[in-house]
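Recall that a protein's primary structure is simply its ordered list of amino acids. Everything else, from secondary elements to tertiary packing, is in principle encoded there. The following example makes that idea concrete.
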Amino acid sequence: MDKKHAKTLTHHAMLVVWGQFAQSIGLIDKIHAVSLHQKTMKHSPQRKILEFLVAFLAGLEHLQDLSRSAHPIDQDQAVAKAWRQSGWADYSGVSRTLTGLTQAEAESIAEVLEQVSAPILAEDVMLALQSSGRLTYDGDLTARPVSNTSTTYPGVAYGHMGDVLQLGYQAAMVSLHSPVYGRTWLSVRSHPGDTVSCTQAEAMIRAAESKTGLRPQRRADLLQERIANLETECQQCQEKAHKSQVALEGVQTKRRQTQEQIPEQEALVLELEEQYRERQRLERPYSALAKARQRLKMLQRRQGRLEKRIPNLEKQLHHRQQRVKSYQTQLQGLQRRLMHFEWENRTNPCPIQADFRLDAGFGTQENVILAIEMGYELYTKPFSTWLTPRLKRRVQAQTQWTRVGGNAEMIAWNNERFSGFPYPLNVALERFHTGQTYRYSTLIHFGSNPVTTDLPGWFQRYNARQLIEAGIKEGKNIFAMHHIKVRSLPAIFLQEQLAVFAANFVRWAARWLTQQCPQIPSGWQNTAQPNVKQQVKVVAHTSAWVNWQDQGCLLMFTDHSLFAGRSLSVKKQWAVQLPLPFADKTQF
């Protein structure tokens, strides 16, 4: 047997399979084509980037595990050959390369990952639109804590990391509900640990649209109506401010006149007192002197009243003027938003229908309004207490609740309008039985789906966003994102990009395997749930013999492996269905 077709032992069977898949989608060539400023000694920086990706696919918790584990990946020649490399670098070399990356280089690598993902994502989007007529996005913010005593992580800040306040980062993540893969990650962006969810809603929506290249029709008509209503309110506020200005000026004029009259009246009182002394006249209740004194006291009391009124009127005028400025600022922003939305509608030849599901951390009034105006069917919960107490006050003792879960009940209101909110909402009050008490929360919906007529369906539809929560848990526990493996901002950025790419990559490869290996384990055949944990944590660390072939390889698991007696024949080819024209990306 020649060297080309020699049999090789690997202790990382799945990494060999994934190397063949990486070749089939052109990933390796594209990574090697990225221009990096670092020199090549024994191993190129591009090779070390690929090795960093392999570390995620192997679920390694620490970078040193590449070289310091029981069966080091950097010593596994079968894995290197599968990834078309002559060998791997020691983990320390990988670390130095990552530390030396610039942000521009990290972004160039991320662009390659996006290019590789594009045709697969386009097919995924097309199939989602064909199967349900809409796209469904989920967004969330997840913590990336580091040690509170660490001083080497750049850009960290204290923030809520689960139930504790800790040093770290926050990752804003967006996923697409996929009919093929269950969940496809679209976007991830790292922020300081004190970043809160409500500041990231628009950025996450824009990120989802950028990755799929598709967006719904903006609800410019609703925005125009909102602007018209605000203009009316602004005009009314301006009229009130004008009235306050007139009233203040009138009081100031009266005060000035009174201030001028008081010295004159005081002089008159003194003059009359002198006359009464010279003539030895008694001051009687209705005498000229008594009347002069009374008028002086009246002027002094008037001055006191006017002095008290002026600060109140000034405060009232300032408040109304500030409200006018607030209205004007808001109107200017909404006019710019309207112009942008109208441009987006004009340049959107194929608008889609899309749902966005967000948790309560994103559900501020402004974020809910924005998602509505951007054209989404929105499923969320209200942030803080701006809605739930109002609904609880509506509930009577005889109210009929609908059971929607094991310990959950709901009552709903259709197209309800709330003070201070411009659009009608479908809202539902949830109550959960917790022993002898209840815990309450609220669901919000805006869109065409008649959710109030099917409360169990609404409950399940919103809680299906657990898909992204499961993905976040998978990233932390399987792809080891609970450990930040690098200590520079460009490398941290790249780590986030590679982790979500790895999660997608495993699912894509599972589909690839089902198309050419009917003998794969039954747990991998459902591409929406291909037992990722087993593939990454077990099979990526399982031994197998590799028979190299011209178009791929044959893996035969050893007798000491979980899949003893089973083999996988894989070829470096994969056909992706080309998307229809409407699924091509539109440059915004």
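The two ends are 56 Å apart (CA to CA). Residues 220-278 form the longest helix (59 residues).
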